[in-house]
Structure formats: C-alpha cells, structure tokens
C-alpha cells in the first residue's frame, strides 16, 4: 500500500501509480485515469440511468482484505463496506465510505475515509459517508427511472464467477441454510428504498462486456502477472526431485510470486504427481513424488488484481521416459495447433477444435474431460461470453491428456493475449519444449527437497 500522508488516506498503488501490494510504479497512469475512464464508459452504456455497486465486506478471518473485482475495476479503492453510485443522468461518480475509525486505524493502518481529500485522491465527484447512500440513491433514481445492479456474486481473493455461482446455489438449496445470495439481498433492500416504480436491471452483462476486453492498464498488469507466473513455475520445476513432496513445489512457486510483487495466488495451487496428475483440480498437494512419475503443476499469481494461469507437466526425475515423451509431444502439438488459431475473429470452438484434432491424430481423442479455453483477467476463470476473439481479450489455452490406467496426466497451459496481428503468450518464460524442460531441471534447485 502507498500512504498518502497529506491526504491522510490509504489507497492501492495502482490508483496513484506508486508501488503497492502487487503493483509496480508506472504500471498504470499516475492520475487514476483508467478507473475514471471505465466509469465514463459504463455511464455511456447505461445511458440516462443509475448504477450502484456494493464493495466487499471486511474479512471474517485474519487475512488481507481484497476488494470485489467489479468494484475495484471501476474505483481502484480498497476499503471494506464501500458503495459506488454512477449517475448516468448527471454524469457523476459518488463513492460512499464508512466514517473514519481511528481505533481501527491503530490496528490496521489508515484507510480512505469520506471527505475532499479522498475526492482528490480517488477522482470521484464526491466521497460521502455511507449513511448518505440511501438518500442519494432515492433522489437520483427518482429522476432516472432505471437502476442497474449486478445480479452476480462478488469476486474477492481467488474467487471466480463460476465457482461462486455454484456456492450460492448450494447454500440456497441447503435445507439447514437456504439463504439468498448476497446480491439478491442487496437488491431487495434497494427495492425497498426506491419503491416499485423504478425499473431495476442487471448490470453484470454490461460490466462483464467491458471487462472481457482489457484496456492498456490491464494488459500491462496481465503481462507482469504472466511474467511472474512463469518465473514461479520455473523455480518449482527446478525443485522437483524424487522424494520431494507436492507442497514443496507449490511453496517454491508461491515464494517466487510473493518475492516478485504478487499479493498472493490467483487460485489454490494444483500440484499432482503420479495418479494425482490425472485429477484435474487436485489440491491436497500432500503426496511424496516418486521416481519415474510425471507431475502437473497448475498455478498463478494475483498481481495488482490480475491473474495469470499457467500449467506445466514434467518428469519428477528430470528426464522424460519414452511414453511420457510421446504423450507430452501430443499435448504440446495440440497446444501449438490451438495457439495458431488465436487471432481476432476466431472463436473458442475453432481454437478447441484445432487442439482436439491434433490429439485425435495421436490417438488421444476423448482423453481430456475439460474445455481447452477460458477467459483470464481479474479472476482466473474470468467473465466473458463466447463472442469471437478481438484485440485485448485474454484467454488460457490448456489442452491435456489423462491416462488414468497408467497414472500419467499431461496438461500444458498458457495465458494468451489476443493482439491486432494474432496473439502474445504472456507466460512464455516457463519452458514447454522437452529439451528446455530437461535443461532447466538439470540446474540446481535454490531450495533442496526436505529429507524424511
């Protein structure tokens, strides 16, 4: 975090261009322009309407607070319990924050609080106490007539929309719980305040459409996330050895993520050796790796609110066996075929079919029970629809083959930016060719495996 002494506020460095948790100086313009520009674009899309978003609540555990992705995307502000109102009629952005709590600041450090200093720091038209939200909401929606709210779960640390939707539904169906989703409860309370005459619509498709195509500031952060992710996996690969534990590789990669400026990981590490290499989202990471096995590591950092998603598969002993090499070359060829299709105008289906056809040629068709492409951005499984690719879209390309009867799984995944002329692989720093993998694994590890 960067402390703005003159203003007496604390704000994420991405907003002001300084060095902060997971953000390097100069990664985005120093005046907060990306956030203001996004708010303007959203107000253009909703026309003469009002949009409101609720930020994430404070954490229930002793872990670092991380703002909801949608809220951060439009504000750049990390404060629990914040609210944002975008008035498309008056073209004004209002941020609502809890009042200053000096006692809490003594424990956790300064936070952004309502007042003119916060307005200057955030670029908002007004930063008001949350107690004023209801009145402003009622007054402004009365003139607009249409109010947009996101009808989707919040995305905080390591949360993706798909998993969050499943969790909401499971809780709703639980006979001993049955709670409605947080977004539904928020909408109900808003409806009670604005009355039945206001037309409430879903903001999620509008905001998701904006987030799908990354702007220049986002691409800069994603490039750095990709660089860090690849370097982390390089160190994990160098640390693999018979007798080491899966969690050691995860720890080595995560150390590198943190050392290079990431705030943490974008998702729990997947490190599967031997039979676990065929478990797609295996996460226990407790098994001792044995000679002659393959290990799959799927991991990525959370850097400045942006994720990288990279998977490498490699032999525990450092050199590929004949069958391991055969399967690996087939998956690598499938990924290369898929990458060759990544360009403006291409579809997910075309990219995935190219990979599937390559696997079919090698006799491995139907040995991968998962999709080969997904969006990447503020979440590892980021928002986005199936529209044709265009410059600024970022995806993961991840073909795989899983031979459970042989305890042999191989997946190769990279984070890829669609460019005007084709694509750019953002995680290319981790080797994919067999020769490069074996050469890297022949190098001494920085940290030696634990001894039983």
List keywords for this structure.
single chain; 452 residues; alpha+beta; Creatine Amidinohydrolase, Chain A, domain 1; Creatine Amidinohydrolase; 2 domains; four-stranded antiparallel β-sheet; elongated
Secondary structure layout plus pairing:
Layout: E1 2-4, E2 9-11, H1 13-16, H2 33-46, E3 50-54, H3 69-75, E4 83-87, E5 92-97, H4 102-108, H5 116-122, E6 126-129, H6 133-144, E7 146-149, H7 161-173, H8 182-194, E8 199-202, H9 204-212, H10 216-239, H11 246-259, E9 264-265, E10 270-273, E11 294-299, E12 301-303, E13 306-307, E14 310-315, H12 322-341, H13 348-361, E15 373-375, E16 394-397, E17 400-403, E18 408-411, E19 414-418, E20 423-425, H14 434-441
Helix pairs in contact: 2-3, 10-11, 12-13
């Amino acid at each position: 975090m960067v402390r703005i002494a003159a203003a007496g506020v604390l704000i994420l460095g991405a907003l002001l261009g300084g060095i902060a948790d997971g953000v390097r100086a100069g990664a985005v313009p120093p005046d907060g322009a990306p956030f203001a520009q996004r708010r303007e674009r959203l107000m253009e899309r909703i026309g003469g309407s009002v949009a409101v978003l609720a930020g994430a609540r404070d954490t229930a555990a002793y872990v670092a607070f991380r703002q909801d992705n949608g809220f951060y995307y439009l504000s750049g502000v990390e404060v629990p319990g914040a609210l944002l109102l975008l008035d498309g009629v008056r073209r004004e952005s209002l941020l609502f924050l809890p009042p200053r709590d000096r006692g809490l600041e003594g424990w956790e450090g300064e936070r952004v609080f309502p007042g003119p200093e916060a307005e200057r720091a955030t670029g908002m038209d007004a930063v008001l106490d949350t107690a004023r939200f209801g009145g402003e909401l009622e007054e402004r929606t009365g003139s607009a007539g249409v109010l947009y709210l996101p009808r989707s779960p919040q995305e905080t640390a390591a949360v993706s929309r798909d998993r969050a939707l499943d969790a909401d539904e499971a809780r709703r169906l639980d006979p001993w719980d049955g709670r409605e989703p947080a977004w539904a409860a928020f909408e109900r309370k808003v409806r009670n305040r604005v009355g039945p005459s206001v037309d409430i619509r879903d903001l999620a498709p509008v905001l998701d459409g904006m987030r799908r195509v990354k702007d220049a500031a986002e691409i800069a952060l994603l490039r750095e996330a990709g660089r860090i992710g690849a370097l982390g996996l390089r160190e994990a690969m160098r640390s693999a050895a018979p007798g080491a534990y899966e969690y050691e590789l995860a720890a080595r990669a995560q150390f590198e993520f943190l050392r290079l400026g990431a705030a943490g990981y974008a998702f729990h590490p997947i490190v599967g050796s031997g039979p676990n290499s065929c478990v797609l989202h295996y996460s226990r990471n407790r098994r001792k790796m044995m000679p002659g096995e393959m290990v799959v590591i799927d991991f990525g950092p959370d850097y400045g609110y942006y994720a990288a998603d990279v998977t490498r598969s490699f032999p525990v002993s450092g050199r590929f066996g004949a069958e391991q090499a055969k399967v690996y070359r087939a998956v690598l060829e499938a990924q290369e075929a898929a990458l060759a299709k990544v360009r403006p105008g291409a579809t997910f289906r075309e990219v995935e079919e190219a990979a599937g056809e390559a696997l079919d040629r090698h006799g491995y068709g139907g040995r991968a029970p998962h999709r080969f492409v997904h969006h990447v951005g503020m979440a590892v499984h980021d928002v986005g629809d199936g529209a044709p690719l265009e410059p600024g879209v970022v995806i993961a390309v991840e073909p795989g083959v899983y031979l459970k009867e042989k305890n042999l799984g191989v997946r190769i995944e990279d984070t890829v930016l669609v460019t005007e002329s084709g694509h750019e692989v953002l995680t290319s720093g981790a080797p994919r060719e067999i020769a490069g993998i074996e050469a890297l694994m022949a190098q001494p590890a920085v940290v030696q495996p634990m001894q039983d």
